[in-house]
Design brief:
Structural class: alpha+beta
Order of helices and strands: HHHHEEEHHEEEHHEEEEEEEEE
Mean pLDDT: 88
Strand content: 25-35%
Shape: globular
Largest sheet: 9 strands, antiparallel
Length: 297
């Protein structure tokens, strides 16, 4: 069954299907909207206790429900730590080893492939990464793991394979082959990359500073550099963008960043929960590179 699912992923017209989903999830026809919202709520047990809008009839369309805003107090931000940028599950986390990070057991890929830039990728050698998978039940806005200033935004076109765990375990270099938006920041610990990985039916990625990035689907890499005095600045936990349907976020930090907590594969996590040890507890000595005890292989 896994082989069949993988074969279908290779054959499906990803962009056509994603474009159809784009329009279907924005159709304002009341019965259609109610059907989609009701089906998703029932299938995934979604509750609206922490949402700003609690009456599903008040959402403009299905996508508005899917990307719903939460109450300001719904996701407390861990004090003095690098935090999860999104709700979801920890897919993988650990050290960047010889320029490569783990996708799944037995599968890895290079940071250079992911970011599309060898010089930028070299900044994370010996550093840390964390991959957060967002399922359809999760909150789909993406926030800052650490306060920083945006230096560059890079949109890299590619495929739109599913990022469901079984597919990630089957298709080599999936994250580096899918369409993605790489946001590069300057932080107190040096560079940080926040990568939005697109996926099938994820028909749109958008940011708070640029609006909708996809669609349209590009045929070449697009860079946007920000002048320091005009660059967007974000506090820890501040919203950066969102997925209009589910996907994956990859966080990259350099070797001088604080060590991760002992994160476990498939462990649920909420936006704002700590990924790292508390920054206030670190001494200069503990900031030196060390073996990562909780690395997911």
């Amino acid at each position: 069954m896994r082989d069949l699912a993988t074969a279908l992923q290779l054959l499906l017209p990803h962009r056509l299907l994603s474009r159809l989903v784009y329009y279907a999830t924005r159709w304002r026809f009341g019965p259609w909207k109610a059907l989609l919202i009701g089906t998703l709520k029932s299938a995934y047990g979604i509750r609206l206790d922490d949402a700003v809008i609690k009456n599903t009839a008040e959402f403009e369309h299905f996508n508005a429900f899917f990307t719903r805003e939460l109450r300001p107090d719904a996701r407390p931000i861990a004090n003095g730590a690098i935090v999860s940028p999104a709700d979801g599950k920890v897919s993988q986390a650990g050290l960047v080893r010889e320029g490569r990070i783990v996708q799944a057991k037995g599968i890895d890929f290079s940071v250079e492939e992911l970011l599309g830039d060898a010089a930028e990728a070299a900044l994370y050698d010996g550093g840390r990464f964390a991959t957060i998978y967002l399922s359809p039940r999760d909150y789909h806005r993406v926030h800052m793991p650490l306060a920083g200033t945006l230096r560059r935004s890079t949109h890299i076109p590619g495929r739109l394979f599913s990022v469901a765990p079984k597919i990630v375990e089957s298709i080599p270099r999936l994250y580096a082959r899918n369409e993605r938006l790489c946001l590069l920041f300057d932080t107190e610990y040096g560079p940080m990359a926040l990568v939005f990985v697109g996926a099938i039916f994820v028909s749109s990625i958008q940011t708070v500073f640029e609006g909708e990035v996809t669609p349209p689907y590009a045929s070449r890499i697009r860079h946007r550099d920000f002048e320091p005095e005009r660059a967007p600045r974000f506090a820890t936990g501040e919203e950066v963008g969102r997925f209009n349907m589910g996907s994956t976020v990859v966080v990259l930090l350099p070797k001088d960043a604080p060590p991760w907590l002992e994160l476990k594969s498939e462990a649920p996590i909420k936006m704002g929960e700590a990924l790292s040890v508390s920054l206030a507890m670190l001494s200069v000595a503990t900031r030196e590179p060390e073996p990562f005890p909780g690395e997911i292989a």
